[in-house]
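Quality-control log, excerpt.
Job 1 of 2 completed; input and output follow.
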Amino acid sequence: MAEQLSQSELDYPFKLLEYFNGFRVSKVIFSACELGVFDLLLQSHKSLSAESVSQELQASQDGMERLLDALVGLDILDVEIIHGKALYSSTDVANLYLAKASPKSLHNMIAYQSQTIYPLWNHLADAVREGKNQNEKTSNMSSDQIFETLYRSEEEMLKFMQLMHATWVVETHDVVTAFDLSPFKTMVDVGGCTGGLARELAKAYPGSTVTVFDLPKVVEMAKKHFSVPDDSIAFQEGDFFTGELPEGDLYIVARIIHDWKEEKCLQLLHKLCEQCKPGGGVLIVEAMLNENRRGPVMTQLFSLNMLVQTEGKERTPSQYFQLLSSAGFKDLQVRRTGKCYDCILGIK
């Protein structure tokens, strides 16, 4: 049952008003990242006035002061009043996740949300009415050209790959350790993009080899922009729908199944099962809905995002079980991580 509201909440809709203003909160953070607020405060090593910040970032003092105050209200920045003057400083969470220089920075994720996702969500009502993505309205691309839209230029491809890479900054450890994957000595990350998840797999299971399998242009961009010294993973080019898959004991399909309608999901999973040797398996990594449809809210919002941007959706564990069983996998197990992304392991 839904939570019963108190009389005070019925008299004044605190939660609804908070929800109504949610887009404003997002844009405050998006704009601060775009302007370079968090990078400046991290580099300064001291508190700064709104005047100093506005001068450094070539912004109006009045506008910057309002933005900084809003960030303080959101507990993202801190402020101290000294001799009647407000001095602003970064919090640990801002330094760790919002400044570009941090190894755990989510700056690229935020930039993609602001520049690509936010305009799509302006057409959410249209997506619900029409039952299809809104790429035609925001990028003049056909609704069935999902990855042609995402990869329509080198700049757009890099933005998308940076988003995917940033996602694994905070998710990978819980995902790769949800199950003990050490029995699988040859792992293939299907559609593994930049290799962010694959590198964490290689770190967690040093006795296994890990290969990222993705489109030639994605592999080229990954090597150009996301390579690391003494890389522990390999890359192989190909198309997982039309091409031949590398041999592997375990196929990782992370944030792939949710892009497609059932028939395409089954096409890919059948192909993976045929390629698997007996005892091999597939690991699905996705944001999963609760069976009772009551959450998680983040995943429900993700599912709406798949509506406005792709042809897929987020699913419940039982819906993934059905797909995997139909494709020929058995011994299905689900692990909730408590974070955004959960895991299902299936064995052939």
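Job 2 of 2 completed; input and output follow.
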Amino acid sequence: GDSIITVQLTEEDKVEDDVVFYLVFTGSTVQHCTSTRKINPGSLETISPGHDCCETVKVALCASREGHPVLVVAEDSFQFVQDEAYDAAQFLATCAGNQQALNFTRFLDRSRPPAADVDFLDEKVALAFRHLKLPAEWNVLGAEQSLSENIPRETLMHFAVRLGLLRLTWFLLQQPGGRGALSIHNNEGATPVSLALERGYQKLHQLLTEEEAREPDSWSTLSHTVHSGDYSVKHHRGLDVYVLTAEA
């Protein structure tokens, strides 16, 4: 999801300005409808929707004009694939609260990947997390979030802060248990806040300690989602296009 899709129109499809084009993606359980923006008379741009599973879906390019029936201009298939970022996000989501798994992730800290790799990892994993279908009861602290906060334990927030993952930290802060995780000490006595300070992650420390902290600048082009029952509407601020998703 959130990748740019370019649509090239054929000569016969280049029509008047009052025609509105949109794409319809039909999967096994979910359907997405995306608006488009015209780059020039022969090209359209839109955003790929975040899908609920890895499968090949049908995609139709439709044209709409006031007072006329909707026209299907072209049809094709579109494949959603499971990549490493999706695997990583799924692993982290399922190991929330699993101390053995969270302690294992600390091996990543010893290798200290280069800053460029960390930034890439942060962007991809945070985006994949945003598209995961998390259970309604999901919590940053795991199923045992009712445990006393005095019990030292590793959390997903410790993981994100230790590696300096700004976007992932922001995402976790918005989830149930995100704010509560900030005051939890691990076995070394460190909280996510003290870890950020100790490692010199100033932006991260600011994000964790300021009540009115704004989301990372790099997210300003990503989609903002509003949910309502079986539907959700996503606005991609960078391209100013919308995605309507409905469960079949």
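Post-run check on job 2. Residues 115-131 form the longest helix (17 residues).
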